Amino acid sequence: MSTGTGSRGPRRTRPRWAAAWSGTWQALAGPLLAALRLVLPPTCAGCGRWDTVLCAGCRELLRGPALPVHADAAVGLDVRSVALYAGPVRALVLRWKNGAREDLAEVLAEVGREAGRQWARSLGATTALVGQGPLLVVPAPSGRARRLRGRLVAADLADAVAQGAARGWCPPAPAAVLSVDLLRRRRGPAHQAGASARGRRRNRAVPPRVLAPVEGAAVLLVDDVVTTGATLGACARALEAAGARVLGALTVAATPPPGGPRGATLPPAVPVPGEQTAGAGGAGRERQGQEHRRRYVTRP
């Protein structure tokens, strides 16, 4: 075991055997949890209530339009989130991201579809804003470890957002919405979770690589959680440097500001003119002839 010293006193690092055991446990945890779920009834991923994947109360926290949030490290970017990253929402998002609850995939996909649909509806003349080319829905880049595990939660969420955006296109006319996984991290930590605000801002100094030409394309960024906006800000700058027009960003949840009340809620929604409540005649509002497809850029 090695130790180090600094201005804040001794610092202790994990021994190698601990890191190895952590990796082994993560590999075994998925199958073990899956086996247990065959025997035990499901519990709510948000509050723990028995015999339900997600109870009505926790589902309600994920309903409603994505509302603007303030992100210090993404100045000038229109960032919107569906919910506050606290309490049951934080619990269920973590379980979804870490693979502990595969049964949440469709729940979060529906959240993404509704957020994408309402985002497109809120633009008004969508075609006039996006232009002649397709709208590219681009997920924030996942780290190498997450890619190796196949846990591409941002890419899966981008798929759902793209489907919803195609449904909400206005005016109703044939259009293409592509979910394109084209950003890759250059270097740095595996993920931003647990990093301080200063650390997030430092990490954002290295923008991701853009793997395909995007000059003139309209882009909507997607991520699961926004804290300081460091990741989304870096993505927007990289895409704009490559010639794209970044229209905004959608996330499932936004972290409450430091020191703020954990029970705070996002501001009330401003209804979209002519919009019905979610779930009322949703199937009838789907546009015919509109296209959504996922395109992976595989260049390393």
From TrEMBL:
Homology family: Belongs to the ComF/GntX family.
Pfam families listed in its UniProt record: Pribosyltran
Listed InterPro entries: ComF/GntX_DNA_util-trans, PRTase-like, PRTase_dom
Domain of life: Bacteria
Residues making up the signal peptide according to the UniProt record: none
Domain Phosphoribosyltransferase, residue spans: 201-255
Protein name per the record: DNA utilization protein GntX
Chain segments carrying region Disordered: 258-300
